[in-house]
Amino acid sequence: MSWLRYLLFSVCLLVFSQQGDAHELDPGYLDIRETEAGVFSVFWRKPDVRNVPMDIHVQLPTSCTPSTGPVPVSDGAAWHSQWTALCPAGLQGEVIEIVGLSRQNTDVLVRFQPVEGAPSTSRLTATQPQFAIPISQSHLQVGWTYAVLGFEHILEGWDHLLFVFALVLLIRSKGRLVGAITAFTVAHSITLALAALGHVSIPGPPVEAIIALSVVFLAIEILKRDDMHLRLSERAPWVVAFCFGLLHGLGFAGALQDIGLPDVDIALALLTFNLGVEAGQLVFVAVILFLNFGLKTLLKTMNLLSYQLVSRANAVAGYTIGGIATFWLAERIYGF
């Protein structure tokens, strides 16, 4: 799959363009809890965009006082506000809108907890910025909401995708590649569950820095690859993938903790979020393999493949991946 290195420059440009606007892709989170009949505690968290809050606002029904919240304050990663709303008629069956969401490239998770009964969860998007609070919500609706969030999270996590991309470039054996992806999946599923349930707690910035370091490691392995003498990362890639997968799982858990888990259906939400992550990862790998099949056939037809070209492309891939990951590492360490 050496031809894939030719695609790396375009991938890198996309990575840098997305990395600069990472917060714009972060989901918003609205939590509404009924503390007593007609009284609701509202917590509203919206993304940071270049050190200012994203231009989206909660609009409760006009029967509520107040129908919008106070000016948000920053916690360093996002902007949040909290207030108490009086809604004498209640909120079930009423419509809540995120004003301005139709102009943004993000979504908002809305969670409603009545004073009695099960909570409901919904995902609002640019094309669907309103949410009618249901009387009740099925397990299927909760599961689907968190599965979509997991799917979107992995496809927006450029460091995770670059790690998987580097694995695909490094490992030539299909059997070993399957083993490595499986080990990566098992590992990050373990730490995702442990961290999301509160059994493991590690500060986010060091985890993000080590995730960048894991990509640097794979870049070095690509540069040092020798077809005559396979390194450990090629002989037993599942060992490397499993170890680093534990760290990547903590990164997934950080995103899930920012979104929040329902008080009930925790296991379902956790499972479906993880399944969504896996679905996104498999789609990404499938696209790479599909492009591999098509472009490899084309290059063979044009007789463009040669040992010298492959060697140079290998160096370009390693240095480019390593350069991006080193930039992320320095940026994240500086952010401490």
Question: What does this protein structure show overall?
Answer:
The protein has 336 residues and is of the alpha+beta class. It has two domains: 27-137, no CATH class; 153-334, no CATH class. It is 53% helix and 16% strand. The protein has nine helices and ten strands. Strands 1, 2, 3, 5, 6, 8 and 9 form a seven-stranded mixed β-sheet that branches. Strands 4-7-10 form a three-stranded antiparallel β-sheet, with no helix packed on it. α3 packs parallel to α5 (204-223). The radius of gyration is 22 Å and the shape is elongated. The two termini are 38 Å apart.
Task: Give the strand content.
Answer: 15-25%
Find the count of extended strands (DSSP E, 2+ residues): 10
The biggest sheet amounts to:
7 strands, mixed
Number of discrete helical segments: 9
Q: What is the count of distinct domains?
A: 2
Cα-based radius of gyration, to the nearest Å: 22 Å
Strand/helix succession? HEEEEEEEEEEHHHHHHHH
Morphology:
elongated
Low-confidence stretches: 1-24
Structural class: alpha+beta
